Amino acid sequence: MDVAVRELSYAQAIQEAMAIAMEQDERVFLMGEDIGVYGGAFQVTGDLVERFGSERVMDTPISELGGAGVAVGAALTGMRPIFEFQFSDFATLAMEQIVNQAAKMRFMLGGEVSVPVVMRFPAGSGTGAAAQHSQSLEAWLGHVPGLKVIQPATPHDVKGMLLAAVADPDPVMIFEHKLLYKMKGPVPEGHYTVPIGKADIRRQGRDLTIVATSIMVHKALEAAAALQAEGIDIEVIDLRTVRPMDKQTIIDSVKKTSRLLCVYEAVKTLGIGAEVSAAVAESDAFDYLDAPIVRLGGAEIPIPYNPDLEKATVPQVPDIIAAARDLAKGKR
Amino acid sequence: MATARKAANSDAAQPNLPFAFRKYTAEQLRDVLHKMYLIRRFEEGAEDAYMRGLIHGTMHLSIGQEASAMGICMPLTDQDQITSTHRGHGHCIAKGADVKRMFAEFFGKTTGYCKGRGGSMHIADVTKGNLGANGIVAGGIPIAVGAALAAKKLKNGKVAVSFFGDGANNEGAFHEALNMAAVWRLPVIFVCENNGYGMSTSTERSTAVKNIADRASAYAMPGVIVDGNNFSEVAEAAEAAVERARAGEGPTLIESKTYRYRGHSKSDRNRYRTKEEIEDWMTNRDPIALFEAELKEFGIIDDAGIEAVREAVKKEIADGIEFAKDSPSPEIRDLENYVYTEVA
Questions:
Q1: What angle do helix axes B26-51 and B303-326 make, rounded to 10 degrees?
Q2: Residue range A291-311, pLDDT digits in tens
Q3: Which terminus of chain B has a smaller tally of CB atoms within 10 A, N or C?
Q4: Which sign, positive or negative, has the C-alpha torsion B332, B333, B337, B339?
């Protein structure tokens, strides 16, 4: 049977995934600040409250720590909550419940319980919201055993990975770049899953591997298309999952291309790029490298308000083009 | 002196009996004494094993708080759920745990409740509804609210109880959790076991209100103060709160005023309270001694019966420690187990 494929925005794809999850499983419900009649700060839940009612699309008080804890407790005792943080930055208020409770409960209790909670984090810069509403904290949570951390880059993937997250018995943290919400792409109807822990090769190439996350996947693809005209053939890997990281796909690609560029929006130091680089450096792909590994990440500053400064803080397409060109041509 | 009688549900006939002696059978009351002794001797046994180097890490003893744990758990079924604290051994036993498996956990053995991964601070017994002790002050409060939310959604009639100490009432999680529980009228009971000190800092120095129960009014829920060393008084408040929760009328905050005889943890040099204060509680307000006196007064048990309870508990403790000693330790090769749910 052919499944119809429509163009949906990233936000619509998330909404559709949550609606399907709630239709299929009575244990699934949504919690978050202003996700009911308001529809969510980014209109991701939209009109779901009208379809499913306020018991299943629950507005919470502005209580990130308590709210996250309630979601953890409900997940521990038979429910499948999807908890929306209004901005990923507010995870800082709930770190206790995420890091000490959700992530460790199963381990501390010797495998006697599971915590099947999904938490959604609108993340990233580019909206002029300045330093407290623009961060990319996925590497923070990626450092915690017990959590799974994903960064879907397309409407297709966010729907499939959200449905995989809801079915997952362990806590899954979804980082959604805010600038992706309006991006459109093909999305199949109905239920399907995209596996957590598997990277995707978005573009095949011979000369250079770019490993990118979230919105940087699209910027990397744009850079790769531009460099094709110069005869540079770039492979673009969409990491998709921060933890557990699909190192094998990266290693296999680098063995083919012998060059690695990591592109991510979060602060460059101690970030995902370091882990990707180390995965290659610690593997037999190291012997295949023809040039040093290069990382392009966010500047070592909080996200500024001024739009020109804001753009300059995180990698942009020309930065990726320049770095990839230098790397491919042996200027590094 | 009251004449000997069997406790029965005959309020009208015996209006002057304390609540517990009207509510519970003689057998139930004797079982309460048994469990209060079990808690105390378990903790003494654990302390002794720690001193002898058989248990590593640290532990937080609740000796002196036994009536509070037992009174609160009286109205609960095995299906009702609790979240507990770093001082949670008593809650675990009161909720029905087997001391063998508790000792095994303290000894870090695979037969322990957490297979040696949690230890004293994360002791749990999910089969009896104990979702676990928690090493983070106030960490379990929102989780209990979540369990109550699940119970309401699943319509399974369960209530959730969150035990926490006086220190937790100054954490933000306390405020957020109590507010949500009240807004959503959830079947949850918040039990603050106020033993006077958050580690070394007294409630007078840390808390703006005189009674922690006073804070209940900020969340539009009943705030009840009980003598936490008086089993009957605690049980009476717990029964009322559980009834209210099961009836869908929402949460209750119970402040159980009690005292811990031992220090905060094994590092405590006891510089913040006087010897006289500790001795006064131990001599004049010991929860087991008070309960025993009542049991004798109302003819539920005699000295020989009490001695029999003590002997039975002594044997259970000795057997538990032997079981723990004889149990296998986890294999190093299993180090990474239980981080994620194993996919079959």
A1: 40
A2: 999 999 999 999 999 999 999
A3: C
A4: positive
Question: Which CA distances in Å does B326 have to B103, B118, B323, B329?
Answer: 11, 19, 5, 9
Res B242 pLDDT > 90: yes
At B343 the pLDDT is: 77
Domains in chain A and their CATH numbers? 5-188 (3.40.50.970), 200-328 (3.40.50.920)
Put simply, the answer to whether A66 touches B340 (Cβ < 8 Å) is no
Give the nearest chain A residue to B180 (CA atoms): A61
In this predicted structure, the answer to whether residue B282 has a pLDDT above a threshold of 90 is yes
Which of A16, A33, A84, A133 is the catalytic position? A133
The angle at the Cα of B153, spanning B150 to B154, to the nearest 5 degrees, equals 80
* Maximum Cα–Cα distance across chain A: 59
Determine the average pLDDT of the residues in B200-222. Answer: 97
Question: Looking at this protein, which amino acid is placed at residue B283?
Answer: T
Q: How confident is the model at residue A1 (pLDDT cuts 50, 70, 90)?
A: low
By Cβ distance, the residue of A27, A75, A108 closest to B122 is A108
Q: What is the pLDDT of residues B39-72, one digit of tens each?
A: 999 999 999 999 999 999 999 999 999 999 999 9
Instruction: Indicate the residue of A96, A106, A170 with minimum beta-carbon distance to B136.
Output: A96
- Give B147 to chain A, closest Cα distance, Å: 5
A192 by Cβ neighbours in 10 Å (0-12 / 13-18 / 19+) ranks as: middle
Mean pLDDT, residues A213-219: 98
Active-site annotation holder among A64, A84, A235, A275: A64
Round to whole Å and give the CA distance between B34 and B17: 21
Which residues does chain A have within 8 Å of residue B118's beta carbon, measured at their own beta carbons?
Answer: 108-110
Which CATH number applies to B45-325: 3.40.50.880, 3.40.50.970, 3.30.2350.10, 1.10.760.10?
3.40.50.970
Residue of B nearest to A56 (CA): B153
CA-CA distances (angstroms) from residue B309 to A308, B23, B38, B105? 78, 22, 9, 25
Q: What ipTM was estimated for this complex?
A: 0.96
For the residues B10-25, what does the mean pLDDT come to? 81
Bridge-based pairing state of the strands A57-59 and B197-198: unpaired
Q: pLDDT band at B12, cuts 50/70/90?
A: low
Delimit the domains of chain B by residue range.
45-325
Residue A65 and residue B173: Cβ atoms within 8 Å? yes
Q: Is the pLDDT of residue B3 over 50?
A: no
- In contact, B257 and B228? CB cutoff 8 Å: yes
Those residues whose C-beta lies under 8 Å from the C-beta of residue B116, and which sit 6 or more positions away, are A110, B104, B105, B107, B108, B109, B110, B329, B330
